[in-house]
Amino acid sequence: MDVSSTTGIPSAANAMLANQTANASAVSVLKQSLDMQAETVAALLPTEPATAPGQGLPEHIGRNINITA
């Protein structure tokens, strides 16, 4: 029986557990970041004044799009 192949199993299991813990904490930080972004957007959207598109602009502005560079 080859004992050398079984000695690496506990260290591999520990490495996988550490990797799983790191991934879980990274996902938790990502979720917190997304929640904070959602709160910020929700706070900023109502503060934007509701204006009609083109309000206060001349009639000819905003009708054509220049697609050539």
Note down, in words, how this protein is organized.
This is Motility protein. It comes from Thiocystis violascens (strain ATCC 17096 / DSM 198 / 6111). Pfam families: YjfB_motility. With 69 residues, the chain is mainly alpha-helical. It has a domain of 32 residues. Helices cover 54% and strands 0% of the residues. It is elongated and about 80 Å long. The termini are far apart.
Jot down its keywords.
69 residues; mainly alpha; 0% strand; elongated
Overall pLDDT: 81
Q: Note the overall shape.
A: elongated
Estimated share of beta-strand residues:
under 5%
Distance between the termini: 73 Å
Number of helices: 1
State the secondary-structure class: mainly alpha
Return Rg in Å. 28 Å
Low-confidence segments: none
What is the number of strand segments?
A: 0
**Helical amount:** 40-55%
Succession of helices and strands: H
Largest sheet: none
Pfam families: YjfB_motility
Region (Disordered): 49-69
Protein name: Motility protein
